[in-house]
Amino acid sequence: xxxxxxxxxxxxxxxxxxxxxxxxxxxxxxxxxxxxxxxxxxxxxxxxxxxxxxxxxxxxxxxxxxxxxxxxxxxxxxxxxxxxxxxxxxxxxxxxxxxxxxxxxxxxxxxxxxxxxxxxxxxxxxxxxxxxxxxxxxxxxxxxxxxxxxxxxxxxxxxxxxxxxxxxxxxxxxxxxxxxxxxxxxxxxxxxxxxxxxxxxxxxxxxxxxxxxxxxxxxxxxxxxxxxxxxxxxxxxxxxxxxxxxxxxxxxxxxxxxxxxxxxxxxxxxxxxxxxxxxxxxxxxxxxxxxxxxxxxxxxxxxxxxxxxxxxxxxxxxxxxxxxxxxxxxxxxxxxxxxxxxxxxxxxxxxxxxxxxxxxxxxxxxxxxxxxxxxxxxxxxxxxxxxxxxxxxxxxxxxxxxxxxxxxxxxxxxxxxxxxxxxxxxxxxxxxxxxxxxxxxxxxxxxxxxxxxxxxxxxxxxxxxxxxxxxxxxxxxxxxxxxxxxxxxxxxxxxxxxxxxxxxxxxxxxxxxxxxxxxxxxxxxxxxxxxxxxxxxxxxxxxxxxxxxxxxxxxxxxxxxxxxxxxxxxxxxxxxxxxxxxxxxxxxxxxxxxxxxxxxxxxxxxxxxxxxxxxxxxxxxxxxxxxxxxxxxxxxxxxxxxxxxxxxxxxxxxxxxxxxxxxxxxxxx
Amino acid sequence: xxxxxxxxxxxxxxxxxxxxxxxxxxxxxxxxxxxxxxxxxxxxxxxxxxxxxxxxxxxxxxxxxxxxxxxxxxxxxxxxxxxxxxxxxxxxxxxxxxxxxxxxxxxxxxxxxxxxxxxxxxxxxxxxxxxxxxxxxxxxxxxxxxxxxxxxxxxxxxxxxxxxxxxxxxxxxxxxxxxxxxxxxxxxxxxxxxxxxxxxxxxxxxxxxxxxxxxxxxxxxxxxxxxxxxxxxxxxxxxxxxxxxxxxxxxxxxxxxxxxxxxxxxxxxxxxxxxxxxxxxxxxxxxxxxxxxxxxxxxxxxxxxxxxxxxxxxxxxxxxxxxxxxxxxxxxxxxxxxxxxxxxxxxxxxxxxxxxxxxxxxxxxxxxxxxxxxxxxxxxxxxxxxxxxxxxxxxxxxxxxxxxx
Lengths: 669, 405
What we know:
The structure holds two protein chains of two kinds. Chain A is an all-alpha fold. Chain A has helices at residues 5-8, 30-35, 39-68, 78-112, 121-143, 168-196, 209-241, 255-288, 295-308, 324-336, 338-352, 361-384, 386-392, 396-426, 432-458, 475-506, 546-551, 566-569, 586-602, 608-624; strands spanning 552-554, 560-562. Chain A has one domain: Cytochrome C Oxidase, Chain A (Up-down Bundle). Helix content of chain A is 60%, strand content 1%. A two-stranded antiparallel sheet of chain A has the order 1-2. In chain A, strand 1 (552-554) and strand 2 form a beta hairpin. In chain A, helix 12 (361-384) packs antiparallel against helix 14 (396-426) and helix 19 (586-602) runs antiparallel to helix 20. Chain A is globular and about 70 Å long. Helix content of chain B is 34%, strand content 17%. Chain B has a five-stranded mixed sheet with strand order 5-4-3-7-10. Chain B has a three-stranded mixed sheet with strand order 6-12-11. In chain B, helix 1 runs parallel beside helix 3 and helix 6 packs across helix 9. The longest helix of chain B has 35 residues, at 41-75. The two termini of chain B are 39 Å apart. At the A-B interface, helix 4, helix 9, helix 10, helix 11 and helix 12 of A face helix 2, helix 3, helix 4 and strand 9 of B.
């Protein structure tokens, strides 16, 4: 982890190798954001970008619903419809839910383990910029009128050049490839962070469940992303360089793609849902005023889901012609992955049992996850019944199922997280009234939209059809679902208004006092919003829910009594001697090069040259970048104060910026 | 099997909500694709398996949903004091219990699932006596189903499939009967399907008769259907297969054994030479234009059809038109060939001949789908006159039952 380069340049700016700039000094405004390596800013960037893409994906969804509102719809043509539904899926999975999880993980995970940043801050920044580059690259396809049209699952050979002659599927392959690098790098980064940088005393089984779930997700990504990477490269070679990995005409087996895609794709489902489970496991105890029921069971069931998630992929292929023995095996594995999931649901309910439930907007969303995800889980069991799946698969019943999982499970969980951690991130709460409107509109609209899809599916309505004929009994529920989609849109609008109005209301007011919810985990030791250096001092951890235990204790009768107020326990955030990694120009430069390479592959290989040069410059400069500027208030460059260039003497102490900000934190199990 | 399922049903607690849900699902007036209305033994086996699972799922859902509501109501904080409730960190026995209970439920469901899986994956020997070209033949009912963008072909090999090489889907060996979009089967018989594709992956699905099975290029997948009664059963391609995926539909027409024999006899006839002047002119246009892709037995192929030379489609195939008029839909099962009174649906057929891509999205320029032929109105009339000589029309009953909207 240590960089010998640090020595090279320790003499200060004079000894820099050719072309190497000193670290950016911030300077405020957008430069701070572009060059930041602060996990909190990166988390906010992830969140903002994800919500931007959420707007796009939601707009696509509304167009889809308008087209399907009536039989023989003419809102969009078949060609545009196929692009819309493909991009809706790709956007929501890769550019909304995954980065939202990354937003929460980036912001909260270091805080929850009592660290000052992730293990590799510059890599973290690069992950974000690569994700953004991949997302923009994908959506650029709209501007050239050539969006991917083969479904997010991109089954071969329909995605081959013969059947998808435009550039759409190339945008898909390259865009996801770029975003995939982001996920992979981020996975390694967060794994190293959790394993090496926990506060003293925080054993693995004193970690908050959210951190645990994020850790499981990173392992899933670590092993799943390489599979899709290979698959996407093969697709790219097939399409652009005449390879025949998926071309049945040349003897290839198109099921190869399906296996590769779903070996990635099913763990991916748990990548989408587990972060939300983590959020719910933080929110429900706080607002039930009870500890999480069965912490160990929750953690182990999360790990179990992570493991079993690798053995169920072929349930996406029950009708693809794999033999009955495979079908039987995957039937069983799929059936039993429901067990750890069910354990989680029941433990959440048991957490609420006997509690004093505070139905804040955050809690409403969390309980919404519990009940809505249950529907998705149960319909999942009905697919595990493989003979029944031969009727259900590729119908709207499946569309209903996975929206209950991904919208009802993952997305509602993230909204719960927004309301819960907004004061931590922005220093003010989101409004509760609008928050409740947001919840009720979304949950009602959601059930209006996706509930009837169960019926449509069982009535025989196929997925991915751009229109349907009257007379099959599809008319009423489709119209109903379209109305529901607009109710969801109003719910989302409430959220947007809430963000704006609560920010306006908070203007000029002092930030939210610490610990607005009487919460339980380490992030609440810091004042709101979190100061740039996180913790004034690293917290010594002695129990799970350390923060709560500092505030409360039990008397001899077992009653909970106050030990200290939150204000006494919380840190003030005014430490000025904390060394933090300096910002860097180079992550964004590296990330900017890859889409250029992508355009080169699509249009003209010469465009790859500037892209490659940009990447090489970025990597070169990154490697030879001087170490942190140690003279700023927090190691420099975090923006709020100007600082001179004098006093490079202590550079040796600062080691490299990729090393752990606090050495005492290395308490590996 | 049935007995256990009935036990399963009796034991299942009736779920009011689920009942309403199923009722709503089944209430559509003429939901021909309804999966909950099985018309054959395999679809019924699946339905018998999934109904109790739906019930169990409904009960679990009610417990969780009702539980959440109950907890909201019973344990909400009235903010009267800051007292904490009792701090319970868990209960090992309880958690073991609710690990084991779902496991047991799922084990039971799994057993029935595997039994049903074995059931629907098996084949029986049910050779039926048939006369083929006057020769008595024992035919193990099986149909080769070939998907291509965006229509279905059905091929019948009465000599059995032994020794028939299906490995090159774009040049399949000549079959006794080749038809499109309407699979005709004898009712009450297990029909084995050998499903494949000439281009991308499709999925063949007749919900009333059985679940679906993908048509994968380069592979033969096995499936079966069986209809209790003569009748018409609707289907839809259910694997996304490109531009006109939604317009790739099909029907299965189940006939009594006698009617099926009559149908076979008809289909084995080559096309009759036209006598009418317009039809003769139409035949000439067919040979000049249409025969590049379409086959009419006795015109551009011998009775047993060689692959049309020069077919310049990606799939190397277009519907065989020898007995066009014996079918009631065209263009991938989306248009009626007849009006309900039995007259030719001339406006739609002419529109199709005038400019097919305007009627059904296709990539004609990419050699997929029928192109606009640039025929004059007189030429169109002549082609229609010729097409009308191809095959005999089915009964009004079938025309009405196969009506598509």
